[in-house]
């Protein structure tokens, strides 16, 4: 008996030796900014909103709307925060600046990585920021009796190296034209900063009562549309107004994110379970990550559609577990290092799908590299 046990242990040991390296979990490759460090930087963690992460994780952009009467009296209301990561030294430095905007606002990093565009004041003011010099200038501001463009909804995206927005032009009598997609030239001024890319008026009539909408580019957008019987459709707009493809149907869309020709969504079923689905609309391929029942949320997808993030949140236990997945591994969910049963917070993923920023008022900011394929 002892002989057989010895052989069994030897076999198990050999298996562990072979399987161990492949099965080992990746390390938590992260840099942290503690709440105390945020305070020393002059950041109000209760008002901080993380908005953008650069593709290489060397820059995290956040914002803060001041509630201090002294700031407001000086017209200092909206502040941008810049957290710069040195991955070699594992340190983060901080800078900030006031911008001439009222919150809420939305921000997009430009392709050069050295500038950004912010839209605020309900889509009626556009500001460009040069990051090295911390210089901000108003690109466009609505003025009564003059032609203009309103960003509506306040959504920005990067396409062919240029920031784009959806909205509409209006004339001097404030009469609006049909909805369109326009690119924004931060070096121009006034309405001339907006260049119409395509009309989307016919499309918007088809999706007039959408529940949610995410624009990936001027030729790709994804909608959830309420239908009869308390159901919701997932549909994709690809190329032109007539090419509105219906992809799926369920009781409710809990979350959605998009990449090139791809969409990931959490669709609530009639039995209150939630199905996580990824569709490559271009290749007509479908994946169903997860267990098919849990309420996955906080969805992100890389620009190329090959990497995604999702989370499970335990509201009662105040715990949050985040998963990453790659198309190369059929989008099998893997726990994100350092983010298993974490205190709930806010996630932002870089367009590259290589890094994320995670912020909670209890633990501060973590800038984390996402394990590769």
Task: From the structure above, extract its key features.
single chain; mainly beta; 4 helices; globular; disordered N terminus
Explain this structure to me?
- It is a single chain.
- The protein has 373 residues and is mostly beta strands.
- It has a domain at 101-199.
- 10% of the residues lie in helices and 49% in strands.
- The protein has 4 helices and 28 strands.
- The strands form 7 sheets. It has a 4-stranded antiparallel β-sheet with strand order 1-28-27-26. A 4-stranded antiparallel β-sheet has the order 2-3-4-5, with no helix packed on it. A 4-stranded antiparallel β-sheet has the order 6-7-8-9, with no helix packed on it.
- The longest helix has 22 residues, at 2-23.
- The two termini are 44 Å apart.
Q: Spatial order of the strands in the main sheet?
A: 1-28-27-26
Number of strands: 28
Please mark out the parts with pLDDT under 50 across 5 or more consecutive residues, or reply none: 1-22
> Mind describing the biggest β-sheet?
4 strands, antiparallel
Mean of all residue-level pLDDT scores: 91
Strand content: over 45%
The count of helical stretches stands at 4
Which class do the helix and strand fractions yield? Answer: mainly beta
């Amino acid at each position: 008996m002892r002989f057989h046990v010895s052989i069994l242990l030897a076999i198990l040991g050999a298996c562990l030796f072979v399987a161990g390296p492949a099965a080992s979990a990746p390390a938590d490759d992260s840099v942290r900014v503690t709440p105390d460090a945020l305070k020393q930087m002059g950041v109000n963690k209760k008002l901080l909103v993380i908005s953008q992460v650069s593709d290489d994780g060397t820059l995290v952009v956040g914002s803060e709307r001041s509630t201090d009467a002294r700031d407001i009296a000086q017209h200092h209301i909206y502040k941008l925060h810049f957290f710069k990561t040195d991955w070699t030294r594992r340190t983060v430095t901080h800078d900030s600046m006031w911008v001439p905007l009222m919150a809420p606002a939305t921000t997009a990093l430009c392709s050069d990585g050295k500038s950004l565009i912010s839209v605020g004041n309900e889509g009626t003011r556009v500001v460009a920021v040069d990051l090295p010099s911390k210089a901000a200038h108003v690109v466009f501001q609505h003025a009564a009796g003059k032609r203009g463009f309103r960003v509506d909804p306040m959504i920005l995206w990067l396409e062919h190296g240029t920031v784009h927005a959806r909205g509409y032009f209006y004339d001097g009598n404030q009469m609006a034209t049909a909805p369109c997609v326009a690119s924004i030239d931060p070096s121009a001024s006034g309405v001339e900063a907006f260049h119409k890319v395509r009309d989307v008026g016919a499309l918007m009539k088809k999706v007039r009562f959408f529940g949610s909408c995410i624009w990936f580019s001027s030729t790709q957008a994804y909608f959830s549309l309420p239908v009869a019987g308390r159901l919701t459709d997932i549909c994709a707009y690809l190329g032109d107004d007539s090419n509105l493809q219906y992809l799926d149907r369920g009781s409710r869309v809990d979350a959605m994110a998009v990449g090139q020709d791809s969409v990931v969504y959490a669709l609530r079923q009639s039995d209150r379970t939630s199905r996580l689905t990824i569709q490559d609309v271009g290749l007509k391929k479908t994946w169903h990550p997860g267990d098919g029942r849990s309420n996955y949320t906080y969805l992100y997808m890389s620009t190329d559609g090959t990497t995604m993030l999702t989370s499970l949140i335990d509201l009662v236990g105040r715990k949050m577990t985040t998963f990453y997945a790659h198309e190369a591994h059929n989008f099998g969910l893997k726990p994100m290092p350092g983010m298993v049963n974490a205190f709930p917070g806010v996630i932002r993923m870089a367009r590259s799908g290589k890094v994320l920023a995670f912020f909670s008022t209890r633990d501060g900011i973590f800038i984390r590299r996402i394990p590769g394929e």
